[in-house]
Amino acid sequence: TIIVATGNRIWDRAAVNEMPTSLKDRMAHYTLQPNIDDWTTWAIKNNIDESIISFLRFAPQNLHNMDPYQDAFPTPRAWEKLNAKLPYMVNPFITCAGSVGVGTAVEYLAHKEIYEDLPDLDKLIKSPHNAKTFDNTALNWAITTGLVLKTTLTNLKQVIKYIKRMPEEYASYYFKIAIQHEPLIAQSEAFQKWAEEDSQKVM
Predict the structure, then answer these.
(1) Which of these, 108, 99, 58, 54, lies nearest to 79 by C-alpha position?
(2) What is the C-alpha separation between 99 and 112, in angstroms, rounded?
(3) Residue 177, Cβ neighbours under 10 Å: how many?
């Protein structure tokens, strides 16, 4: 029988009591750290809002930034709770600040406004060679996240044409997350062709 126990660290000041040394000696101890790629895969599967996913890809330090001296701070759990509140926000700042803290709320809401400038992704996919490209880093994260969610085996070839026109770091993110979202992409002719021609640049 294997028993797995989880808890917070003493210095997190999160309702933790010191473990007796005799118990410590009977256990193996590991510290887990949030990983933005693992979280992104989970977030897409669990319908987390695109604006949250792209914001945290743009500013991954805000995935988990615990401050025991504040009432609210960003954690994966806090972002999941905020996601559930998004459709019902009356005052966006108060809602976001109450979930992830004031500073992170300001950054996230500024990023969320970028979605007003987001191009029509369906039109972009139909005409990837003529679609506009952007220099705005946050907007590029938003576009790439949107393309991950819109990619199918049918339109993959078109999406790749646009991705190849973007800075290389977005291609790396796109393919890593898109394949996790739809594993059959890795077996497609379009992906195999890209892998032969361009993968060494970004993977």
Answers:
(1) 99
(2) 16
(3) 23
What is the distance in angstroms between the CA of the first residue and the CA of the last residue of the chain? 40
Q: State the number of CA atoms in the 13 A half-sphere of 75 facing the CB.
A: 12
Tokens standing for residue 189: 């002719």
Per-residue pLDDT of the chain (203 residues; tens, 9 = 90+): 888 988 877 777 667 778 888 988 888 988 888 899 999 999 999 999 999 999 999 999 999 998 888 899 999 999 999 999 999 999 999 999 999 999 999 999 999 988 777 899 999 999 999 999 999 898 999 999 999 999 999 999 999 999 999 988 898 889 988 998 889 999 999 999 888 877 665 45
**pTM tops 0.85:** no
What is the DSSP track for 121-162?
HHHHHHSTTTS-----HHHHHHHHHHHHHH--TTTHHHHHHH
Specify the residue for token string 């992409």. 185
**Two structure tokens written together for 120:** 């029509």
Please state the length of the chain.
203
Tell me which amino acid residue 69 is: Y
